[in-house]
């Protein structure tokens, strides 16, 4: 497994409604640090202010990663504390929220039908409308 950087950033003096973390997330993303992690095939959201970055990017050392984090923090115009851990082992996670996967068109249609009380799957035939594939011509 390739080494990755696990980063936790805590911004100081952030008032409720302050967009500093939104700016931080955008700046970290520009530097190839993500806010999700895949464990056992399931993608999870990392806690607020927590990031994972591949070592194959610029900053393949802890010092390089620290420079990237400092640049991102500087864009928030806030003071911050951060921790960087370089790891090449798997991670154990607990109680993280799974990333919601987008529904397929069929799943969206079934959800809509269920919402109005119809539990049957629509019949798709050769005579179906080419735009929605469900109504019959």
Brief summary:
The chain is of the alpha+beta class and about 140 residues long. It has 3 helices and 5 strands, in the order E-H-E-E-E-H-E-H. A hairpin with a 2-residue loop joins strand 2 and strand 3.
Brief descriptors of the model:
single chain, 137 residues, alpha+beta, Alpha-Beta Plaits, three-stranded antiparallel sheet, two-stranded antiparallel sheet, extended
Describe the structure.
It is a single chain. With 137 residues, this protein is of the alpha+beta class. It folds into two domains: 4-87, Alpha-Beta Plaits, CATH 3.30.70; 102-137, no CATH class. The chain has helices at residues 20-30, 62-76, 105-115; strands at residues 4-11, 36-39, 42-45, 50-54, 80-87. The protein has a three-stranded antiparallel β-sheet. The termini are far apart. The mean pLDDT is 81.
Q: Structural class of the secondary elements? A: alpha+beta
CATH architecture of the largest domain: 2-Layer Sandwich
Which H/E pattern describes the elements?
EHEEEHEH
* Alpha carbon gap, first and last residue: 55 Å
Q: How many domains comprise the coordinates?
A: 2
SS field, number of helical segments = 3
Q: What's the arrangement of strands in the largest beta sheet?
A: 4-1-5
Strand-residue proportion: 15-25%
Tell me, what's the shape?
A: extended
Fraction in helix? 25-40%
Number of strands: 5
Please mark out the parts with pLDDT under 50 across 5 or more consecutive residues, or reply none.
none
Describe the secondary-structure layout.
Layout: E1 4-11, H1 20-30, E2 36-39, E3 42-45, E4 50-54, H2 62-76, E5 80-87, H3 105-115
Antiparallel strand pairs: 1-4, 1-5, 2-3
């Amino acid at each position: 497994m390739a080494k990755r950087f696990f980063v936790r950033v805590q911004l100081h003096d952030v008032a409720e409604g302050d967009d500093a973390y939104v700016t931080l997330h955008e700046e970290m993303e520009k530097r190839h640090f993500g806010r999700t992690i895949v464990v056992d095939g399931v993608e999870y959201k990392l806690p607020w202010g927590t990031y994972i970055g591949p070592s194959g990017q610029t900053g393949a050392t802890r010092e390089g990663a620290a420079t990237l984090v400092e640049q991102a923090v500087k864009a928030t115009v806030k003071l911050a504390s951060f921790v960087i851990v370089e790891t090449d082992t798997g991670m154990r996670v607990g109680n993280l929220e799974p990333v919601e996967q987008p529904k397929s068109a069929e799943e969206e249609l079934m959800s809509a039908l269920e919402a109005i009380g119809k539990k049957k799957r629509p019949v798709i035939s050769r005579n179906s409308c080419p735009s929605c594939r469900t109504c019959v011509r």
